Amino acid sequence: MSVQPPHYFPAPRRAKFCSQCGTPISRRVPDGDNRERDICDHCGAIHYQNPRVVVGTVPVWENRILLCRRAIEPRYDTWTLPAGFMELGETTAQGAARETLEESGARVELGELFTVIDVPQVDQVHIYYLARALGPELDPGPESLDARYYDESEIPWDDLSFRTVVTTLRHYLEDRRRGVYQAHRYSLEHH
Ligand SMILES: [Zn+2]
């Protein structure tokens, strides 16, 4: 018999118990390593933690840019480019197209890699691809309250979800003005 919890949430990165044997985890530097790890002193498993990859797109239809209004925390009810955590077994490009379809219903033809943004304070890397929508149809999924295409002049700059979205949009609009799209790699180290 299973008991339903009051609500589900993503587990914290640091586990309390070894996933191999259930023993409480210790945190220290293993022999031959140079940083603290979550270690099981019972079975010997080392529980490595590494950054996570967020993948998304800058979908464009007739010069307008697709934004989705978030129906989930964090940043509920703010506007974002379609993006989400890369899943196991997929490529960054597949993940970006999947997230775009899931969050907006937009079918896109993926373009070039556009931004690669290190966000070390949350242990993430965000990767955005350029994308051309294959039609104007949208069908926002359960993670979005709404989805629509914005003219440059209508972009809700004060209501965007994340700095990675703000900076990716700024780069996109700058490159569009210049008529040359290039990949941008940078870090957002401070809030
Ligand atoms: Zn163990």
UniProtKB/TrEMBL annotation:
Domain of life: Bacteria
Cofactors (names): Mg(2+)
UniProt-listed SUPFAM superfamilies: Nudix (SSF55811)
UniProt-listed PROSITE patterns: NUDIX, NUDIX_BOX
InterPro entries: Nudix_hydrolase, NUDIX_hydrolase-like_dom_sf, NUDIX_hydrolase_CS, NUDIX_hydrolase_dom, Nudix_N
Keyword Metal-binding: no
Record-linked Pfam families: NUDIX (PF00293), Zn_ribbon_Nudix (PF14803)
UniProtKB keywords: Hydrolase, Magnesium
Zinc found in the keyword field: no
Molecular function terms, GO-annotated: hydrolase activity
CDD domains reported in the protein's UniProt record: NUDIX_Hydrolase (cd04511)
Residue intervals of the Nudix hydrolase domain: 50-173
Family membership: Belongs to the Nudix hydrolase family.
Alphabetized PANTHER family for the sequence: NUDIX HYDROLASE 23, NUDIX HYDROLASE 23, CHLOROPLASTIC
Identification of the protein by name: NUDIX hydrolase
Highest classification ranks of the organism: Bacteria, Pseudomonadati, Pseudomonadota, Betaproteobacteria, Burkholderiales
